[in-house]
Write a structure and sequence with these properties.
transmembrane helix; transmembrane; Transmembrane protein; 127 residues; membrane; single chain
């Protein structure tokens, strides 16, 4: 394994140099990884497993050294966990009719999160 100072995958205990352990971070820069995760989240509305893949990528990159990209990964992880909660709540309450409103609110919120995240990514701003 090679040690690099510019990457978003850190292992515990490493201060100055970071070891890249996955192939994806070798292929894509951090900004492209952020863009990929937003795209996977959006595709998750059609093919749900892509959102799970996006969440895994975001979790793997939470220790990104660059503050801008780290905030985007944190935002994506936050969207993942809140989505799990809202989907469970919507699924449980769907038999009462309220679940449809919960799921609609969740869909709207996730679209807003993806849109604002992409807009800030385009401007190179923290999420």
């Amino acid at each position: 394994m090679e040690a690099h100072s510019v990457t978003c995958n850190a292992t515990k205990g490493m201060e100055m140099k970071v070891i890249r352990t996955d192939r994806l971070s070798k292929l894509l820069s951090p900004d492209r990884l952020v863009l990929l995760v937003y795209g996977l989240y959006a595709a998750g509305f059609i093919v749900g497993i892509t959102a799970v893949v996006g969440a895994v990528i975001a979790h793997m990159n939470l220790r990104c050294q660059d503050e801008v990209w780290r905030t985007h990964f944190r935002r994506q992880v936050k969207v993942c966990w809140w989505s799990i909660g809202w989907l469970l709540l919507g699924g449980i309450t769907i038999k009462f009719g309220v679940g449809y409103l919960v799921l609609l609110a969740w869909f709207t919120w996730v679209c807003f999160q993806i849109g604002t995240g992409l807009n800030k990514l385009r401007k190179n701003l923290p999420a």
